[in-house]
Structure formats: structure tokens, C-alpha cells
Amino acid sequence: IWKNIRMISQLLKFSFHSSVAIKKRSKVPGVMITQFVEEIPAGKSHPDFSRKPIALTIQEGKLAVFKAIITGSPTPTVTWARNNGDVSDPERYVVSYDPVLGEHQLQMANVGVDQADTYKCYANNEYGRAIVTVTLNVIEAQLYLFSEQREKATADLKRTLRTRAEQKKERKDGEVDEKFWELLLSADKKDYERICAEYGVTDFRWMLKKLNEKKKEIEEQQSQYIEHLSNLRHIEIKMPGCAEFEFEMDLKDPNAKIFLLKDGVMVPFTTDTDEKHSLHQVGRKFIFSVHGLNAEDAGLYQVDIEGVNVFSTDFKIPAVDFLVKIQEVKAVEREDAAFECVLSAPLPKISWLGKNVALEQGEKYDISVSEDMLIHRLVVKDCMQVDKGIYAAVAGMKSCNAWLIVEDPNQRGKKGARKTTQAGGGGEDLIRIAAEQQEKLQKEREERMEQLKQIQAEKTAANEEEKPAEEGTAVPEPPKPKAKPKPKPKPETKTDSEGVHFTSGLSDVHAIIGQSAEMVCKLSSEKCDGIWYKDGKEVTTDELKIVKDGAVHKLTVSNCTEDDSGKYRFEADGRKTEAMLVVEDPPRMNQDDLATFSEPVIIKLGQNATFKMDFVGREPMKVQWYNEGEEMLEDNHIRIEKSDSHSHLLLVKCQRKDSGEIKLKLKNEFGTIEALSRLIVLDKPTNPMGPVEVLEASASCVDFKWRPPKDDGGSPIKNYYIERNQIGRNTWTKIGNIPGEPHYKDTDVDHGRRYCYRIRAVTAESTSDVFETDDIQAGTKAYPGPPSTPKVVSAFKNCITLAWSPPTNTGGTNIVGYNMEKRKRGSNIWGQVNPPDEPIKGKQYDVKDVIEGMEYEFRVSAINFSGAGEPSTPSEFVIARDPKMRPNFTNRKMKSFMVVRAENSARVNINFEASPMPTIIWLKDGMPVSKRVTVSNTDGMSQLLIPSAERSDSGIYTIIVKNIVGQETFSVEIRVTDDPKPPGPVELEENVPGTLTVSWQPSPDEKRDNHLHYMVMKRDSIKRTWHTVADRLFNNNFTAVNIMPGREYNFRVYAKNDIGLSEPSESLTWGVFSLNLAPSKPCNFDSAPIFTVPLKTHTTPEKYECYMSCAVRSDPIPHVTWYRNNVSLNTDTNYYITNTCGVCSMLILRVGAKDNGEYKVVAENSLGRAECSAQLTILGMLSEYV
């Protein structure tokens, strides 16, 4: 009563705010939200649960707590209630709020059985209300079911399950059980179809769309607590009486609460593996186990993190037993051992254990199952002593085990050759038992189908009898005599021992639309006529053909349509018989189209394949395409077009793996039809396979065979192309094509030599890649003798060079190489130095795989066509270290002077070589360097680094490299300076006529830089250009001469150091005055040519260049001609001649003997002619004459 009063008051309270009631959807499943206003103001929100309470299953007397986190603005009011009771008792119910965690709690201390109920949590504010329900289950202490109660509970459970199975029907969109989605969210794609069939979902497009939406929602919820979730493995029985499921997960909060639920009810679990439900965590892997399995453990298991589902798996325990258990197997070493068993019901997979460890398919174990899924087989390959022990097969709740005994009678621990035989296995007896069981199961299925059909027929007949007879069409029937029901229902037929009766009644007929159907019955008298009825109406239409042939009465329906379906009745002399005509419209295909479709489609690699089929049948039609039994869904590679009358499959850019059986499956309510075709994608074959089996290897013949390619690329193997290589040579000899048998006999061989073969498979389409055999020797082996003892040529820390002499006994064949081995002092193990497949060709080898300071000895063995012979005697021990060497600087271009700008880093690298490693000391001006200087030493180099240089770091730095052999030193001067500051003001003073004294104030850097000096530049009013008149002045004045009166002069003074120039200090202008000069007369500068600078005699070494020049003055400009021994050179390209502003030049790039002689220059113009000459002497020629 109190609960109802409180709920009514809440409804009245919020009815004043608004008459609107809008249903909202929460992100948390199971929360119902009602919004009271159409629009919520900004910053406000209706109540919602960010974390809802979790269902509890708890033992009587424990503490039960429901927790909820609620959001909303303004802050909602939270209340609790229960369906069948009151929560107002403060001693039994405590409502609290934790402001730190933001949790609303309902606590029940010492919970009792009467408190088990469904509880509700309400959250209300002025904008809406949120409600969530949660279940509390209380386990009564010391409650046991008696045997009768348990049997009754089991019977009730089976009856309930049976009822649910009978009532299960195909669900409509939006009416799917929530369990269906929970299973799909954690299932693999290959299981989608099975789950949909189990829950009656047929619209796969709608299912996939809805599933993607739910995946997004659950991922958003999981992202609040989970960083990563992967490797979901569903529950399965791993060991007898134990089932496990596992997944990998990274939690954002390691302290987040993990809940295990079974069929929606919380299940307690611990980390103790002896308990019923346990959790074992290894790193990021979570493994849940269920021990002590029984039938009640089947159900839906779920794992929640803080109320958010992360994984769901459905555990079904198959009702299966072992008809034939595995038997003890005795096997010989290197033999395979097989265990086989037969099940009572088909099962696609069972668990195999070896010494209590789960076994998986792989190189060691081969696990297989027969097509009828009754015979299961485990093969232990290549049995060894470690494989013996107990092996077990686990199927559902049943298990069986047997011993594997591995015998080793004569080997005495030695590893024998691999055997191809197999021990164990049931053979034909198991196949016979499995076939009998399969026949039995098939018979049971047919009986069940027959029972279902009879039940369906009874329901249909009952429904028809309940329908009221239509007026004017039904014929009155005589009353039915009471009779006992017969065990098998048959078409209802009235018979009587007196008068006319039916000797054969009507039978139900199933016809396909468009075909003919015939209903036949037979009377006991040929003289009696009868009347045919359809659905209670007499048959009068001409479309139905009625025939009487003596006592046989026939009703023929030509070209059946859906309207022809119904109940047909034949009445004669007060007797009647009834039967149903069912006109079906199953999927059908045209036989010509089917024949065309069945032809294989052959394409090349990378091409597109197209399949198309027309069909008819009633809608809706389910169209599915399969490749090798696996359904194909649309993606970038697969295009599927579906319509009411045809379907089109396009496979884009087919690969070899796409080859296989292509199946089109059509299904509607009337049946299923399939069309089969085959896709063959042509490609080059794979490589031929080994191992090579040598049939004969004699002195005159090598006969061997190999295995054909695993995949012939879609075309049969026509030939094998073979090449041969003789070991020791680099060439391959072409043998050519041989017929398609993988066998070859080579008779062109030399005794003792080894051969290698390359084999390619050839088809009409292409040629495979190469398969290379191992070395095969023709005849017996004759190994060479030992070479001479290796001698050490040189030894360094990373390389030791050795040399040896070939053996005197070569074994009758050529030496093709050597193998070298090394051994450390104190070790008994020899290790090969050169790669095994790369023998040493010469008689000297550099061993670089050595460790500095270690002591080694070496030996060498020779290799001929038979193989490697005996090794030589070991060499003397040698230490891997460099020879002693006095320190020596390797860089001959080291700088002894370095200028560094202030605040920049200074770096000096010194490369050296020395052995052993020397001691390195750096000094500055004869003293150890300061801590500001960083010194880095490596093998062969030393570096001095000043990170941020200052002027005080200037000085002479000396490196001393010293070891036990000697020492070496080198010095470098580092000058740290900066751009100089300009000098002070410049003053000019004339003490002596014609001279000027230039003086200036010193630069502020003069005291800090002893390399600072000055440069003076001058400019006058005539030339108007600056030119240097003095440089490297270390004082503060300079006397300029040749000061001409009447001209203006300016001076600039620069400060200079090792970095560069400062800004100039400029003087005032000197000599501003005017002169009275007489008027000038025009001058005539025309003159005949005259050489102001004549040619000079040159003496030049042979093959050097020679440069000759002279100067001529003339106006107008003269024409200049060069002569050697009176022969003009102006057109000779071996001489480079120029005439620039009166300077005549000639360049000989490479002086030779022909260039010796007298050279003359002639200059002429309209006023005259001038010439000058000189002698060129070649030094090389003089030495030859001497």
C-alpha cells in the first residue's frame, strides 16, 4: 500500500509541470526515461543512469548492496521501491549517498529470503523521470532438494524447454530476443547464420544493420572502462568435467569490478580453481572456468565490467555418448599412432587431451572428423618416447582415455629413420558402426518428421471443420459415427460393409504450379456415380476434368494455380472421402539454363568471372551464393545482384584461391533448389615438391624422382623442364623437357662428382618456379687428405689471416674448396668459420669473426666432389690483437691555428693510430685544460670541445698521445675573438707640405686583442674611388704623401683582427680651395705604334704552360700579329691570343718541343709600324741535348 501511495504521489507531483510524456532512450540498456517538457533549456537535462544497479544472487545472511550513479540538472531526487513489499523499514533497508563517488546505495544487512524481489530505482527532476529495475535473488541456507523434487524440477524444465521449442516462431523486425543480440555481438561472422536460424531471424540485411548500430553503442559504453578487447574464445569443454572461455582485455582502472552472469543472474566466482566458478588472470588474458559440469550448467554466460557487457557466450552441453571408445595403441618409434572413436550423435568437434594437456591441430598432431561427424580421429605423428602416456577424448559430459605405448626394442636410444606406417585405428569396424548409427539417426529424424506432418494434418482438418458451411454450396453430411481414434491418421473415408464403399480413398496431392494434378479414388461398385466438391462447393467448372473409368473416379486439374489449392471431397451413395490438394510454387530453373550454368567457367588470373541464373518461384525468395561450401557476401571482390527472376554473381580480379565449386541456392517456403558450377582460375603451377627419392646413384647413372606440384594451376602437367649443375662449377646445363612423370634418369655423369638439378613444371598455361634438389653424388665417395698446418700471416684485433698448402691426396677429383674451423683456448668445440654453403676458394683466408684479446687455433679441411676430408693439424695459438705501434697522427692536413668567434663552440678533432690503446692528455699553455673543456676519446680519435668559447679560452692547446711504444704530440693555437669595434675620431694635420698626418683614437678592443691592427684608405676628388694606402698598422697614426694641392682628400681608418674588419671611422674633407689656371689648348694624341713594355725571354719546362705579354701604345688602335719563327700564329688554335687596352697576351697551355723558337709581335696602324721579339727556351729539350 505504501508503495502504491508513493508512486501515485510522484505521478501527481509531476503532472502539474507538464502534460507532455516523451519516451527517451538511454545509453545504458534497461533504463526507461520519460521527459516532461518538449524542449529542455540549455545547460539542463533530464535524469539518466550512467551506472545502473546490478542484479544480485547472494546467500542468506550476507550484505546486499545496490549501487547507482545518476546524472541530471538540476540534481534529481532518488527513491527506491520493491514490487512486493516496502523499503521504509530503517533496520532492514538503509538508503545512502556517497558524495565522493557520486553513488546512491540501497543496503540490506543480514538479507533474508523474504527480501528476494524485484527492486526499482526512481530518479526525478522537473524535466523528467528515469526508472531502472533490478532483481535480488537470495539463496536459502541449507536448502536441499529431495530426489523426487529434483526429478520433478528436471521434468518441468524439459517440459518448459519443449514447449518453448514448439512455440518458437519466426520473429518480426524489432521483436527479437535481447539474448540474440548479445550472442551476435561476441560471435564470429561464420556463426551468424546458425544463430539467426536458432532465433528465427530471416532478414539478414536488417540484422546486419541493427547489429552495427548495437556494436557502436556497446563500444561507446566499453570505452569508459576498457582500453583493449580481443581474442574472444567461446566456452568449450577443455577437460573432463571442466569448461573454459577466455579473452584478452586491458582495463583503464585495474580496480574495476568484474561480474559473471548466467542467464541474467549473477554468479559468484573466485580465483581458487577448486571452486565451481573461477577466474584465472595471466597478464591481459582472463580465463573463466566452470568445474564439475552437469546439465544445469548450460546457459548464456556473460561478463560485465561495472555493469557494461563485454562478452557473451552460449554454453550448450550436447547429449552424446561414445559408441566406440579409444583403445590402447602400441607403436614403434618414428611411427604414427592413431586413436579413433565413434559418437552416438553427430558432433563437429571434440576435445583431445594428451597427458592432461589440450592438443591442437599442427605438425605433431592431426585431428580429423568424418563427413557424418560420427568418427573422430587423432594421429600422433613421428612417435617418440616422450609421447607415451594417457590420451583422452572429451565429448560433452562424456570422456574416454587410453594409453599410448611407444616401443624401442633395438635402437638403444638412437634416433631411427622416419616410418610411413601407422599403428592403431579401428578401420572398417568403426566405419560400419558409424554407418549403422547414421542410419539409425536418419530413421529417427524421418519418424519425427512424419509425426510432425500428422500433427499438422490433424490441425488443418480441425480448422476446416470449425469453418461454417457456406449457404447453397455445401451438401449435408450424415452424422459421424463415434469411433476410436486410430494410431496413424489417414484421409477421412466413410466405409460400410453394406452397399457401396470405397476400396481406395483419396490421398493428399502436392503439385507444382503450372503442372497437372490428379486425385483418384475407387468404389466397390462400377455402377455408382458420385459428386466432387472443392472446399465444400460442388465442382462444376470446365477447368477441372472429371473422369469415371469403371469403379475408378478421377479429378484432373490441368495447369495448376494457387487458386486450385484446397480440400477436395468425393461423395457417392452417402459415403465420402477427402484429401488436400496443395499447389506449391518452389524455386525452379530452366533445364537448358541449368545445363549452361553447370559448365565450368575457365578464366586467367586477374580476370573477372560471371555467373547468372534465371529462376521462378514464389516470393520471398532467399538467394545465396557459395564457393566451396562457404557463403559469399558482397565486398570489393564480390558483386551480387538479386531480382525477382534472376541472380547475377560477379567475382572481380579472381585469384587462384577462388577456384572451386560455385553453388547457387534458392529457397522459399515450398522448398530449396541448388545449381552447381565450377570456377577454374588458371595460373602458373606451384613448384615441384621434395623430398627427392634417389633410386640409383652409381658411377654411370643418377636415377631419382620427386613429387608433383601441390597445385597444377588449373592445367595438367605436360612436361618437366630440367637443368643440371655440377658442384664446383657456376654454370647450369639445360637438359630440356621430359614427359609429365616426376622421374628422371641421368646417364651422362662422372664417377665421384656431385650434381644438383633444377626442376620446373610446365603446363599449357605457364611454367612454375624452380625446385632445386640436394646434391647427388655419382658413385662412391673418395674424400681428400688433410691440407698442411695453417700458418698465421697477420693478426689484428678484428682479423686474423692464415695460409696453407693443398693436400697431397685429392681423392681422385679436383679440390673445389676448403672449410676452416676455429677453437678458443680451453674449449673442446670447433666452430666453422666460413658459411657451410660457401667453401673457401683460395689457400688464404681472413678470419674476421674474432673477439679482441681471445686466443684461437685454426684447422683446415679440403673439399672435393665427394665432400670434406680430414682436417689438418691445428695451427699455433694466436691472440686477436693489433701489433704494437707507436702513436701516429693520420691526418697530415691538421690546422695549427684556429680562430673562433666568441660564444661559438670550438671543436678540434685529432685522428691517430696506436697499439695498444694510448693514454691521451690535453694541455692548455702547458697546463691541464679547465673543466669547461670537454674531451672525448674513441678508438682512433680524440675530440676537444669548448661549448661556448670566451676570449679567455684563447691559447695553445697541446695533445699528448702516449703508449708503451712511444708518444706523439701536436699543438694547435685557438684564438677566441669577435668582430672588432671601430677606431675613435680621425684627425688630419699637415706638418710638411705635400704630406698629411692621419691620427685616430685606438679601438676599445686594442687592449684585449694583441692581433688587432689598423688599415687606412684614401679617396681624392679626381679618382673618386677608395684605395688602401696602409695596412697592418699597430700604432695610431700614419703619414700620407703625394698630397696634391687643389684636390680634396678623405681618409677612412678600419680596425682589423683575425675575424675581419670593423666599421670605418672617417675623417673630414681636406683641401677645399680654388686655383686660377690658364685656358687649355686642344691636343692631338695620334701617334704611330710604340711598345712601352717589350716581350721578355722565357724559359719554361716541357709540358708546363707559358704566358707571354707586352704593351703597345698607339692611336688609332693598331692591328697586332704574333709570329713564331716568322710564321703567323693568329689563326692557330693551339695559342690563346688576346689584345685588351693595349696589353697583348698569348697563352700556351702545354709547352712542347715544337713551341721552341723566336716569338715576335708586330703592331701597325695608318701612322706606322712597330715590332718586338723574344726567345722561348724549353728546359726538357736542353736536358736531352746535354
UniProtKB/TrEMBL annotation:
Residues 688-783, 786-882, 982-1080 form the Fibronectin type-III domain. SUPFAM superfamilies: Fibronectin type III (SSF49265), Immunoglobulin (SSF48726). GO terms for cellular component: M band. Residues 201-231 form a coiled coil. Residues 440-451, 461-470, 489-499 have a biased composition (Basic and acidic residues). Belongs to the protein kinase superfamily. CAMK Ser/Thr protein kinase family. Residues 47-137, 491-582, 887-977, 1089-1177 form the Ig-like domain. Keywords: Coiled coil, Immunoglobulin domain, Repeat. Residues 440-501 are annotated as: Disordered. One of its GO terms (biological process) is sarcomere organization. InterPro entries: FN3_dom, FN3_sf, Ig-like_dom, Ig-like_dom_sf, Ig-like_fold, Ig_I-set, Ig_sub, Ig_sub2. This is Immunoglobulin-like and fibronectin type III domain-containing protein 1. SMART domains: FN3, IG, IGc2.
